[in-house]
Design goal:
The complex is a heterodimer of chains A (64) and B (181). Chain A has a single domain, classed as Orthogonal Bundle (434 Repressor (Amino-terminal Domain)). Chain A has five helices and no strands. Chain A has helices spanning 4-12, 17-24, 28-36, 43-53, 57-61. The longest helix of chain A has 11 residues, at 43-53. Chain B is 75% helix and 2% strand. In chain B, a hairpin with a 2-residue loop joins strand 1 and strand 2. Classes of the chains: A mainly alpha (64), B mainly alpha (181). The A-B interface holds A 16-18, 21, 25-30, 32-33, 35, 39, 41-42, 45 and B 35-38, 97, 102, 172, 175-176, 179-180.
Chain lengths: 64, 181
Amino acid sequence: MKNLKLKAARAAKDMSQQLLADAVGVSRQTINAIEKGDYNPSIRLCIAICKVLDKSLDELFWEE
Amino acid sequence: MNWQQIIPFIICFILVVLCVVVWSKKNQAVKDQYDERQEMLRKNAYKYSAMTMLFCSLAYYIVTALVDKPFAQDGVSVLLIALAGVAVFAIYSIFNDAFFGVKAKRSGAGRPVVYIILVAFITVMNGIGAIRMIRENELVKDGLLTTNVMNLALTILFLLILIAFAVKYIMNTLEERRADE
């Protein structure tokens, strides 16, 4: 399932996928895979993404 | 018991074990070059590579048993099967963006583009060798593939890898444009 919340949060911060990837220490393709719903990140990676985007885990990764 | 036959086998076994131990320790340091998704995909790549080599070995021995005649000189079939495994690993990793690590160097001789240029150079060199072997009819002797076929096999392997890099580069470029829209 696509993670549109992550994409929206990234866009709100005016960050490209590459920029976000560099900030959390993963490849751009990993961020792309998470946004497309092709990969489920570990909790560690989720927390790292949340810290960079100033969002909580629920706001980015909870499925309604 | 013929020790002259057993001792080389024992020495080879010990060397292989040592290489695996050293490689596994080095691999720990190399591991942090890849992110978690890449690590997972590389494990799959190793698995598929091993399965490919297993099935190729099985197929080769079944076919040669059925026709009661080998296709290649001693060792050549083993090398070709190994190259098949390498090809599967490389192409799977490339298409899943797990070939180059996230910490792949951005400058100097360790950059991915330098690696690709090196692969292209090796392809050309082996290609030249392969063409020469084909012209001189050195690939097959007494109905068996000779070791001279390795030039051709390596050319094909590295060419496939280069094509995989090219296709993946185009796919990534299009993906980046779509993602940032």
